[in-house]
Amino acid sequence: MKFTASQIAGILEGDVIGNPDVEVSKLAKIEEGSEGDLTFLANPKYKPYIYTTKASITIVNKDFEAESELFTTLIKVEDAYKSFSRLLEYYNQVKMNKTGIEQPSFISESAVYGENIYLGAFSYIGDHAGIGNNCKIYPNVYIGDNVRIGDNVTIFAGAKIYSETVIGNHCVIHSGAVLGADGFGFVPDEHGHYTKVPQTGNVILEDYVDIGAATTIDRATLGSTIIRRGVKLDNQIQIAHNVEIGENTVIAAQTGIAGSTKIGKNCMIGGQVGIVGHLTIGNRVRVQAQSGIIRNVQDDETLQGSPAFHHPDFSKSYVHFKNLPKIVQTIHQFDKKRNNNE
């Protein structure tokens, strides 16, 4: 798919400096750009590359003034970075604008779906499932019985949506994600054998939620595991049964959250964080990567370590930890000197 400089300028409300008819079909970094590529300049440290790039079109800020000859057509905009991001979003929409139902696929006679749907080959839609308008469901997706999916939802190849799951509007679920598998509930008997506790609840995703590849969200034992509006989950995260994650919280890869923990709004949780069950974590909490959370956390705390404690205290303690061999050596020398004096 090709776009001219004038077409791109129209989308971005920018001004063309150079050839308005030059065409691009690919995106590239400014230092790697070649003929037919579109790139951008936002960070000043990359400014030298604009004089050497072979990219056909470069998006720049309106205040950019060339200091020597350019080999690229410019599109001047208010904010080059935001405009390039906007263009990426537009490009993705065009690229993924698939419609229709591919075969072979299975749709239960009792399932209903809205307008402008795309259903990829080898997908399965269960009994009484409901799917909204403008949804894109890629090949090999499983959607179980009684699932409810809102409008403008994208589910990438190989995702599995178990029965009773509810997905809001404008959500994105990436490949390999599993929503609604059983929570990890077992009870030992007198012989040490484990009996499964039935998991009868569901998973609810509110609007504008993104779920990363291979992330798993367990159904509740009773009630719902709830991911609130605007939450963004990275790849390979485990969310256990009856967890609730508050609005606009973001969580990085390989984090694990045990059952019945409640996380507040606008939190930022780094990668490989472990959070034990039945905790309450407040709003706007920051947790550094590889931390272990074993207590309730108040609003606006920043934590680090395993078990995690207040971030400034951790940083100060870590300085001493690095110097621990020297400290121990100094103590031994002091003891030796004291013993000799005795």
TrEMBL record:
Residues 21-89 form the UDP-3-O-[3-hydroxymyristoyl] glucosamine N-acyltransferase non-repeat region domain. CDD domains: LbH_LpxD. It catalyses: a UDP-3-O-[(3R)-3-hydroxyacyl]-alpha-D-glucosamine + a (3R)-hydroxyacyl-[ACP] = a UDP-2-N,3-O-bis[(3R)-3-hydroxyacyl]-alpha-D-glucosamine + holo-[ACP] + H(+). It is an enzyme of class 2 (transferase). One of its GO terms (cellular component) is membrane. GO terms for biological process: lipid A biosynthetic process. Pathway: Bacterial outer membrane biogenesis; LPS lipid A biosynthesis. One of its GO terms (molecular function) is UDP-3-O-[(3R)-3-hydroxyacyl]-glucosamine N-acyltransferase activity. InterPro entries: Hexapep (IPR001451), LpxD (IPR007691), Trimer_LpxA-like_sf (IPR011004), UDP_GlcNAc_AcTrfase_non-rep (IPR020573). The active site is at H241. Its EC number is 2.3.1.191. Keywords: Acyltransferase, Lipid A biosynthesis, Lipid biosynthesis, Lipid metabolism, Repeat, Transferase. HAMAP family: LpxD. Homotrimer. Catalyzes the N-acylation of UDP-3-O-acylglucosamine using 3-hydroxyacyl-ACP as the acyl donor. Is involved in the biosynthesis of lipid A, a phosphorylated glycolipid that anchors the lipopolysaccharide to the outer membrane of the cell. Belongs to the transferase hexapeptide repeat family. LpxD subfamily. This is UDP-3-O-acylglucosamine N-acyltransferase.
